[in-house]
Amino acid sequence: MNKTIVITMSFALFGLSGLALSKPGGKRCHKGAEFRKEMLEKFDADGNGELSEDERKAAKEAWKEKMKKKADTDGDGEVSDEERKAFRKKMGKRRCHKGGEKMKKRLLEKYDADGDGELSDDEKKTAKEAWKKKHQERKEKRAKMKKLFMEKHDTDGDGKLSDDEKVAMKEKVKAAREAFKAEMLKKYDNDGDGKLSGEERKLAHEAEKQDMIDKFDADGSGELEGEERKQAGEWMMENRPFHLMRRGKSCRKGGCHKGGKKGKRKGKRGEG
Fold it and tell me: Which of 57, 62, 104, 113 has a CA that sits 20 to 30 A from residue 162's CA?
């Protein structure tokens, strides 16, 4: 559970005007890793280090109740329109993640249809629905990746990975990663020093990105969209699962968004 769920909870209770459109400056909220640790301590009832669907639901309900109490300034048990507006304004002054202003700009560019610099109720609804759709697509993608991994590595077909199967899986993924690293060095290590410099990493990134576009850009737009992006993702799951595994791990630690651990991930990616 990371920063994404915080924004989700705010959507559910107060719409897009709160955390999602927070302005830079002012008090910063939690860090992703710290917040995840706190949520696990409070809601990981079975102690397995992850939040199940029921545990996430409990966490979400607790969060909503907490926010409701903060917004309900007159203590009548209900959040009036005036209280909700005041709470949105208060939360808008907080900075809950780096890049908040960029996020607001992107939302306005996409959904501010009348160009007044704010999102109306209808525009917020459109943005929320688009976010939900994207979230569902990501969820389905993760489920598909998990299924693919199980089909490949659950050799006894019992629906779970034994310790031996996990070891075998890690060895296969490691071998694929090492092969990819060797390929990148062969292609882009121009000075032959056995590693990729910053400039060589940049060249490798741009070349590999263009290669993916050449493979899947069916309409020739120069970008991967819709079905093209889906096909590219499926190819990545099949051929470079270590990239997706590393990104998934980074997201769970709260470093998936722009402005998080981008620099750190970039360095690792450049080295293969």
Answer: 57
